Amino acid sequence: MKKNVFVLALFCCLTVMAQAQVAKYCMTYADFVAGKWNSVDELTKGRQACQIKTDNKQVRFKTGDKAADKMLKKEAFAVMYGDQLFVNCRNLRCNEICLDVLGYTQAVRYDNDKICVMAYKCNDAAFVLELGTAVAGCLVDSKALSAGLWVTSGAIGFYNENMKTMACYLVDGSTTEKGKINATRINDSFMESLLASDAPLLEKYKAISGKRSRQSAANVLPILMEKGVVAMHAVN
How far is CA 156 from CA 15, 20, 52, 109, 222, in A? Predict the structure, then answer.
């Protein structure tokens, strides 16, 4: 329970008041590192409000402008909504295998210039239920609060029991032989290397006996926070 509250606290920090919800995007990982963002409003000349929708393990962004929607779906690397970071999984690969996410997934900044992506494990199906909720002029479609986006009045964050079935992946800009973007699974060996000089924190990480649960985002994220490598806000 304490662990879940800690993870919830992390994503509560990602909530944004309604008037601050601004959507912007970057085209590449290098743009993300350089803080080179473009306003989504510029794509539609302010005619359409950007909408965020979730269904079947993915987050999608819709503006109503076909050209803009196509670019966000197929070309953009990441979208910032308020101070929440979403990374496009379209070109991410873990050991040359696609992540089990069709669109965008939520992420946090890691060690300043890297990204920690939360996604379902490769070939590990997890069901996301739908719920239609209007938040700050941005339509959120998920199927249940227990398995989708955690929503509060005028704010939106990301926490649910499904984090136990999600894994964390590190994106550092390196590419595969086919030019796709590497996503390195944050597993036992990664954590052991990261925490090699921090015995108490390593012991805390290993306190979870089951490998699947130990390597889940629900266990990994609080440890990364305590280590100080995960930033609670994605804003540059």
Answer: 5, 12, 11, 18, 20
